[in-house]
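tl;dr need the bound structure. longer version: we got a ligand (zinc ion) that a collaborator sent over and nobodys looked at where it sits. i said id run it. heres the input, straight from their email, havent touched it
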Amino acid sequence: MKSAFIPRLVNGPFGDPGLYVSERWRGRALLFDLGRIDRTPAAELLKVTHVFVSHTHIDHFIGFDHLLRIFLSRDTHLEIFGPPGIIANVRGKLAGYTWNLVDGYGFGLTVHEVGVDGRVRWVRLPATTAFTPAAQGERPFAGILVEQSNFSVHAALLDHRIPCLGFAIREQQHLNVRPEELEAMGVPAGPWLAALKDAIRAGAPDETPIVAAWRENGTRQQRSFPLAELRDRLIVVTPGQAIAYVTDVIFNADNAARIAQLARGVDVFFCESLFVDEDREQASRRYHMTARQAGTLARMARAKRLEVFHFSPRYEGNADRLRAEAAATFAGQIPEDHPD
Ligand SMILES: [Zn+2]
Ligand SMILES: [Zn+2]
């Protein structure tokens, strides 16, 4: 089965961090971080529906203006998620321009701010009112920022000497029907299978009746089965795709535990590694990680693949050194680090 999400780093490993994740069949995309994004074609940026900002250091946020400019004349809406302060940061950016000729524009932003108090505050900023808040509110935050029918986006508050968000996309598990079993039951496929999958996903009780209905020689046929019987006989569950994106964090016990949980079992773990292990003290002083530490986290999370990025310019021309160190730790060839 082809994966639903296609992730790629927006820039090379020495460029501004950012991850563009397109949804294969839907013509939509998610964007993680807003550093330099001007080398991404506008047509691709216009597919973005949700933007997730880890924090607003300039290499993660300078692209906001570029994105705004591309979207401004579009009759569409962008959802932006970020750490404490993101609402003021976005409004501060917007306040830098004059907005007297945009009434009638259909574009708008909703900014969602993850607080350290377990709440998400949001504010809706439409272009037509010169981005004056049109509505605002708050909701509890229990780790999930976006919940769609086919995937969810999770976030964890991490320590970068300021709160910084790490993210994970998790596709819903796939429920596949065994065609040979269906045939043996003598019941044709049909929309009732979608109802069965919905009931399984919703965690309906085992005895829930599922009615298979079809037409045979012009007459309507139907048979009813308990959900558990169909589930056990017909359905094969395969996990959905998962991707984690973590950048700009110090390697300490708290962060490590949160990241390992956030990135648990992901197919690909995008993790910063600004430094090599030899420069670990500098990494900690700057609240960043080394390649060895990224490898340690990927092992702890039991990620299937690790991709490191956000390399310090001091290693320009030596990207392989960072990649090799991360890969060797991930593979268990050099010892893991220990967060204190
Ligand atoms: Zn950074
Ligand atoms: Zn930073």
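gonna send this back to them w/ a short note. The pocket of zinc ion (ligand 1) is lined by residues 17, 57, 59-60, 248, 310 (CB under 6 Å).
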